[in-house]
């Protein structure tokens, strides 16, 4: 038998648990086990009892900061092909080298590999 009051669950969650429980019983699972599994499934799918709406749930500042940093890293990746100022050629991706070659109007750049782009940008070819 599941522990705790089920008063905080929505009607939809209660119906879902009942339906899941019936399904387990049809497969021969004992009644107590079926009920426990049903509520565990509802909890896993919906996160437990009824939640406060909108601003009632807050995210800790540390989690927000980590999300911002992660988002900033993703945003910098969307600048693909645009070299960062002061960056060494060896540290650039092929796309960044290609953009630089485009700006310098190097011919044959579309067929070049990364090493060839590096040499051409340094003026060795």
TrEMBL record:
Region (Disordered): 1-125
Listed InterPro entries: Rho-like_N (IPR011112), Rho_N_sf (IPR036269)
Domain Rho termination factor-like N-terminal: 88-124
GO biological process terms on file: DNA-templated transcription termination
Biased composition (Gly residues): 46-56
Pfam family, one: Rho_N
Bias (Basic and acidic residues): 1-10, 18-30, 91-125
UniProt protein name: Rho termination factor N-terminal domain-containing protein
